[in-house]
Amino acid sequence: MASPVILICVTAQPFEHGTVDERFRYCQTGRHWGPRGAAGILPWAVTPDGRAWVLLSHRSERVAAGGTWSTFGGAIDIGETPWQAAVRETGEETCGIDVARGAVTAELEAPCPHGCGWSYRTFVVRIEPAVGHLPAVSIAAAAAWETEAVCWVLADEVGGHGDLHPGLQASWPVLSEAITAA
Ligand SMILES: [Zn+2]
């Protein structure tokens, strides 16, 4: 199966392929957020009626791919594993769920197709809804500048959503399959 492709920020920059600085890794077609790669979490849950839901973030116009819906995540810091970075970023962006206590049902690695060494790791994490309903999740105050909204979306309706982040759009078929199979 071909790996889905996740590219963040594709403005052409006159940097050498594969070079890094404190914030980006530069690539032949642009740059990626996170010199050590990036990682994120797709939380999901099943309600008692058997329907699967995923929690998505509506990105603010102030960030790359503003206005789109995406998973939670960001750059991997020095000394962090992808999982630690994904949990930290999700905790910084949301209040109301503890993804570290969820069950990782799938992991997806999406390397840059240009071979610069950058990749995005997505952890698909099942949350157990308490007493039958989805946890109420809100935006962490410190993340209000980068996040417009957080929302539980029916997994069946994500594929037809018109405003997905290009990375989520590319990886959705695989992520969706991972949820269906779990
Ligand atoms: Zn690249």
Overview of the molecule:
The protein is of the alpha+beta class and 182 residues long. The chain has one domain (37-181): Nucleoside Triphosphate Pyrophosphohydrolase. 18% of the residues lie in helices and 33% in strands. It has 3 helices and 11 strands. The strands form 3 sheets. Strands 3, 4, 5, 6, 8, 9 and 11 form a 7-stranded mixed β-sheet that branches. A hairpin with a 7-residue loop joins strand 8 (103-111) and strand 9. The longest helix is centred in the C-terminal third of the chain and has 16 residues, at 166-181. The protein starts with 23 loop residues before the first strand and ends with a helix. 38% of the residues are buried. The structure holds zinc ion. Zinc ion binds next to loops.
**Biggest sheet, open or closed, and with what strands and sense?**
7 strands, mixed
Note the run of SSEs as H and E.
Answer: EEEEEEHEEEEEHH
% residues in beta strands: 25-35%
Q: Calculate the mean pLDDT score and round it.
A: 87
User: What is the third-level CATH name, the topology?
Assistant: Nucleoside Triphosphate Pyrophosphohydrolase
Low-confidence stretches: 5-14
Bound molecules: zinc ion
Please name the CATH architecture: Alpha-Beta Complex
Alpha-beta content class? alpha+beta
CATH superfamily membership: Nucleoside Triphosphate Pyrophosphohydrolase
Helical content band: 10-25%
